[in-house]
Write a structure and sequence with these properties.
Blueprint lengths: L6 H6 L3 E5 L5 H13 L2 E4 L10 H14 L17 E7 L7 H9 L6 E8 L7 H8 L4 E2 L3 E4 L13 H17 L8
Helix pairs in contact: 2-6
The protein binds flavin mononucleotide (FMN).
């Protein structure tokens, strides 16, 4: 009689990468909470030329990049992307789209054959087209249901919100989301 491996046994062998973009640290905090639950390698996406401090200048630059298809060069290098089975992609909503640096990342690294899971923070207007763009840019990946929560609203001077009750609430939501997508047993 053949023995069927336990689901948790299968998940245990997976190599996880969590890569995120964050300006005011909300998505970073979310990435760290996910990392606490699933472990793996946690990587912040940095640009060769960082965006300006000034909010509106950044909004305008992003709008121009989105309109022209400019992919800002990444300073961050991933050491042998092939070794990962599961890749979490974290980003804020920018101009109701996937931020250009994440487009750069998906253009540069082939995630084909891997399981890809998006997560997001935004000012309350939602994910826009960002998750859809992840799907388009990862045509040969298995994309699982993403996670999104309200973060800051830099336009109104609200920067970091992922603390206190908000953090506790997000932790609970993350737990049930990971369970729902079957990844709550990743951590060894
Ligand atoms: C350039 C820029 C554009 C943004 N555009 C949107 C948007 O279109 N919709 C939205 O809900 N929030 C928007 N935001 C707000 C961020 O998504 C929100 O503050 C998020 O939590 C920031 O994540 P972070 O702290 O990891 O940088 C924008 C922020 C920036 C800096």
């Amino acid at each position: 009689q053949e023995s069927v491996p336990e689901k948790t046994e299968l998940l245990k062998d997976k190599k996880v990468l969590i890569v995120y973009l964050s300006r005011t640290k909300n998505t970073k905090a979310l990435a760290e909470l996910i990392h606490q639950k699933v472990a793996g390698d946690l990587v912040s996406l940095e640009l060769v030329t960082p965006y300006p401090e000034h909010y509106q200048t950044t909004v305008d630059q992003v709008a121009n990049e989105n309109a022209t298809g400019i992919l800002p060069p990444l300073k961050t290098k991933i050491d042998s992307i092939e070794k990962y089975d599961v890749v979490f992609l974290g980003f804020p909503t920018w101009g109701m789209q996937l931020p250009p640096p994440m487009k750069s990342f998906l253009n540069q690294y082939d995630l084909g054959g891997k399981t890809v899971i998006p997560f997001n923070t935004n000012a309350g207007y939602g994910i826009g087209s960002s998750f859809e763009t992840v799907k388009q840019l990862c045509p040969n990946s298995k994309i699982l249901e993403g996670f999104s929560t309200k973060g800051g609203k830099e336009r109104d001077g609200i920067l970091f919100v992922m603390e206190g009750n908000k953090e506790k609430q997000v932790q609970a939501e993350l737990q049930s989301w990971l369970k729902k997508i079957g990844l709550d047993q990743l951590k060894k």
